[in-house]
Predict the structure of Fcf2 pre-rRNA processing C-terminal domain-containing protein.
Amino acid sequence: FFFFYLILYFHTDIPCRVPSLNHKQAVQPYVRQSNSIATIDKSRLVPESAKKLAETIHTVEQPLVKNKEKPTSGPKWFNLPKTVVTPELKRDLQILRMRSVLDPHRHYKKENGKAKIPEYSQVGTIIEGPTEFFSARITKKERKNNFAEEIMAAEKESGRFKRKYAEIQEAKASGKKAYYKKLKAKRARPMK
């Protein structure tokens, strides 16, 4: 600012006045001497409580990070806790997204966009009520620890995925080298 003021002063024909400081605005010393006694203005010293705070060790948190970290979703959403991402949860969520493949007779709405893990969620176990029929419940033997294990157990029973995989591989091989070798082998068999 001062440099600009000097340039303005030297390059203009208008007379400019240099501002002067008021002597009342000057910094007053906090130690005063009258006769041979020196006194201190205690109102201008650092209070004892502030000194103690300055001597203690404390961490400084960034305000942006502090605001973002909310442990729950709030009372409007029943205080759902923040999602703790584990490999098991990731796998279960991935299977849920691909649930349309699990059952050919059920159709689900497609998810648009990139799938992401919810910020607040909770995993629970459904407890059947006493009024439900026993035939509608899953037996203790069929119950598994997580969703992925249940799917694998159901696959062992039905063998549907294995069968579908074999069908796809057969369709892929159709018209290729292995297909023609198999066809030639069939033709080359002697007739009985």
